[in-house]
Amino acid sequence: MAQPSVGFRGLLENRLDEISKLAEAFEKWATDARVPQATIRAVNLMLDELISNVVMYAYPASQRGEILVDAWISPGQLEVRLTDHAFAFNSLQARQPDVRADIDDRRIGGLGIHFVRQLADVVTYERTTEGGQEVNRVHIVKRYVPDSEH
């Protein structure tokens, strides 16, 4: 998967309070790139969920770490890649929640990842090596109709 060199890059520490700063910067970049607002909101919601999972589950509480967010636009779609150096953690393997069950009978957890799967057109995880270090990488694709085609 080749990534164009022009796009968005955000680097944040593994702290929940970093997410809102990233969301603001990402929204400005995507708005300037003429991505529809509904697509921007959907991607920001997915990023919030995925980054929260990395912060809360992938890094030990006392370990300082970073999460790199790269985004680029391909024809008719916004692509985002999250990379972190935490231990292997594939939140996409979470069991699918039973969304038809009564709220009192549902298991806790899994709804956020279910939500990401529903919003994304494509979402994948891989554990790979980059610069001699193992990394987690999540790739999201969100398709949209460009403004010029309305």
Q: Numbering strands along the chain, what is their spatial order in the largest sheet?
A: 1-2-3-5-4
CATH hierarchy, class: Alpha Beta
What Rg is obtained from the alpha carbons, in whole angstroms?
Answer: 16 Å
CATH superfamily: Histidine kinase-like ATPase, C-terminal domain
Number of helices: 3
CATH-defined architecture: 2-Layer Sandwich
Q: Tell me the strand percentage band.
A: 25-35%
Average pLDDT, all residues: 86
Largest sheet: 5 strands, antiparallel
Low-confidence stretches: none
Q: What's the number of structural domains?
A: 1
* Helical proportion, percent range: 25-40%
How far apart lie the N and C ends? 28 Å
Shape annotation? globular
Descriptive overview:
The protein is an alpha+beta fold and 150 residues long. Strands 1-2-3-5-4 form a five-stranded antiparallel β-sheet. It has helices at residues 19-32, 37-58, 111-119, and strands at residues 8-13, 66-74, 77-84, 122-130, 133-143. It has a single domain (8-144), classed as Heat Shock Protein 90 (2-Layer Sandwich), CATH 3.30.565.
